[in-house]
C-alpha cells in the first residue's frame, strides 16, 4: 500500500523524470502546442483518472490520444459515439458458435489501455452509464463473468459544445467521475504555421525518444501516490471545497446566487491527486499550493452546478472558481 509520506528515493525520482521526459518528447514531436491538453493527459494518467475534453473538431484530440498510447507502449481503442450505440458495443458481448454449440466472449473496445470516447454526448444515457460504470469499476460484466480492464487504463472522452444539435447533455453526477474537464482552444497563429510547415515537410512524429512501458506508467502512478501532502495543504483543499458549498473560512456573500450545488468530497480528492501528480511532474516529492491552484479550472469547472441566475447572466464557472480561490488564504 502506497503512503504519501514523501519518502521517495533519489533513484525513483530520476526514473520518473526520465520516463516523463521521454513521453513529453514523443508527444511534442507529433502534437504542436496544446500544452494544456498534454498536461491534462499526463496528470490524469499519473493520478489514475479520466479526462473530459470539450472542443470543436480538428484540435488534435485523436492524435493526442493515439500518440500518448504509443508513448506508453499501450493499446488504443477509439469509440465513435452515435445515438444507436449500445452498451454491448462498448463492453463486449457473447457470440453463439453453431459448430461448437457454445457461447464465446468477445471483449469490447473498452478493453484497452487508452480509450478515446469520441463525442460521448451523442450517445444515449444508457450507453453513457455503461461506459462510466466501466470507468469507475475498471471492469466489465459479460454474461455474468467479470473481466478486468487493463492496467493502466484511461478514458479520454470528448464532447461537442452543448448548444450543438443531436447531443445529450451528460448529467452532473456522471461528469463528476471525470478527474479533469479541459476546454481546448484554437492554436495560436504561430503554432498553426508550425503545423503547416511540419505537414509540408512530413516532419511529424520524428522523435528519438524511446517509448516507456506500461510498467513505467504503473511506477509513475505509484510514485505520484507517495508524494507528500502536508496537513496545511489538506486543510487548504478542504477549505476551498467547503467554500464552493457556501461555507469555508471566508464565505463568499453572494455565492448562493451563483452556485446551486458545490463540489463534493470527490472534488477534494481530485485536487489532492492532481496536486501530487503535478508535483512529480515538476520534479518534487511534496505538494505546494501552486500545485493545487494550477489546474483548478479543469478540476472544478464540471463539479460546480450554477444557478439559473448565473446561467442567465452568463457567469462562467471559471470566474466562480477564481472567486473561491481568492477568498481562501493560501497556506
TrEMBL record:
Residues 258-323 form the ChlI/MoxR AAA lid domain. One of its GO terms (molecular function) is ATP hydrolysis activity. Residues 50-180 form the ATPase AAA-3 domain. It comes from the Bacteria. This is MoxR family ATPase. PANTHER family: MAGNESIUM-CHELATASE SUBUNIT CHLD, MOXR FAMILY PROTEIN. It comes from Flaviflexus ciconiae. InterPro entries: ATPase_AAA-3 (IPR011703), CbbQ/NirQ/NorQ/GpvN (IPR050764), ChlI/MoxR_AAA_lid (IPR041628), P-loop_NTPase (IPR027417).
Amino acid at each position: 500500500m502506497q503512503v504519501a509520506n514523501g519518502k521517495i528515493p533519489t533513484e525513483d525520482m530520476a526514473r520518473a523524470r526520465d520516463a516523463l521526459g521521454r513521453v513529453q518528447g514523443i508527444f511534442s514531436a507529433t502534437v504542436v502546442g496544446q500544452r494544456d491538453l498534454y498536461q491534462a493527459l499526463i496528470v490524469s494518467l499519473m493520478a489514475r483518472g479520466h479526462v473530459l475534453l470539450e472542443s470543436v473538431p480538428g484540435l488534435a484530440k485523436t492524435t493526442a490520444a493515439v500518440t500518448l498510447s504509443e508513448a506508453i507502449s499501450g493499446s488504443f481503442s477509439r469509440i465513435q459515439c452515435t445515438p444507436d450505440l449500445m452498451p454491448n458495443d462498448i463492453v463486449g458481448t457473447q457470440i453463439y458458435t453453431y459448430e461448437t454449440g457454445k457461447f464465446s466472449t468477445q471483449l469490447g473496445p473498452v478493453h484497452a489501455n487508452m480509450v478515446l470516447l469520441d463525442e460521448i454526448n451523442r450517445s444515449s444515457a444508457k450507453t453513457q452509464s455503461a461506459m462510466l460504470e466501466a470507468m469507475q469499476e475498471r471492469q466489465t460484466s459479460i454474461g455474468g463473468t467479470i473481466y478486468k480492464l487493463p492496467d493502466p487504463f484511461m478514458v479520454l472522452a470528448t464532447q461537442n459544445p452543448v448548444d450543438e444539435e443531436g447531443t445529450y447533455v451528460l448529467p452532473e453526477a456522471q461528469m463528476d467521475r471525470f478527474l479533469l474537464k479541459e476546454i481546448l482552444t484554437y492554436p495560436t497563429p504561430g503554432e498553426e504555421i508550425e503545423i503547416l510547415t511540419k505537414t509540408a515537410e512530413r516532419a511529424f512524429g520524428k522523435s528519438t525518444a524511446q517509448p516507456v512501458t506500461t510498467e513505467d506508467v504503473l511506477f509513475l502512478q505509484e510514485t505520484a501516490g507517495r508524494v507528500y501532502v502536508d496537513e496545511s495543504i489538506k486543510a487548504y483543499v478542504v477549505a476551498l471545497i467547503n467554500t464552493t458549498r457556501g461555507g469555508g473560512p471566508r464565505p463568499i456573500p453572494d455565492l448562493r446566487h451563483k452556485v446551486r450545488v458545490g463540489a463534493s468530497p470527490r472534488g477534494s480528492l481530485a485536487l489532492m491527486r492532481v496536486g501530487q501528480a503535478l508535483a512529480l511532474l515538476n520534479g518534487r516529492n511534496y505538494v505546494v499550493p501552486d500545485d493545487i491552484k494550477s489546474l483548478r479550472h479543469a478540476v472544478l469547472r464540471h463539479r460546480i452546478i450554477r444557478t439559473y441566475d448565473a446561467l442567465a447572466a452568463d457567469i462562467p464557472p471559471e470566474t466562480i472558481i477564481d472567486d473561491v480561490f481568492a477568498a481562501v488564504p493560501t497556506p
